[in-house]
Amino acid sequence: MTKTTTKNKSLYDALGMKGKNSIFKSVFITDRKTTEGYPIVEVEPFDDTFLNAIKYPSGYDKTIDRIKLKVFNHFSGDNVWLAVYTDHGHHEHLLSQFHMREICKLI
Fold first, then answer.
1. What is the pTM of this model?
2. Count of beta carbons in the 10 Å neighbourhood of residue 35
3. For residue 35, is pLDDT > 80?
């Protein structure tokens, strides 16, 4: 897993969430961009809340879909590069209007 820098802010903090347990504490908005200029958001386990949510395949899919939707909406529907680092592997997604509507059926 990669190490986050102190410049990275969790989505939990960016949205001003108050709940004690949240999967969004494991979502970090980095200060980096892809070569195309898309912001990079990384997901890596922060605590047991996220780990418990992705423990089983169905939970993993639902959790990642929730994260995709929240990140996509946070960036107002603009393209975002999402990198997910877990024990299930490293997966990268370009969250675009097409991906969210046609592939994920989330919007």
1. 0.88
2. 5
3. yes
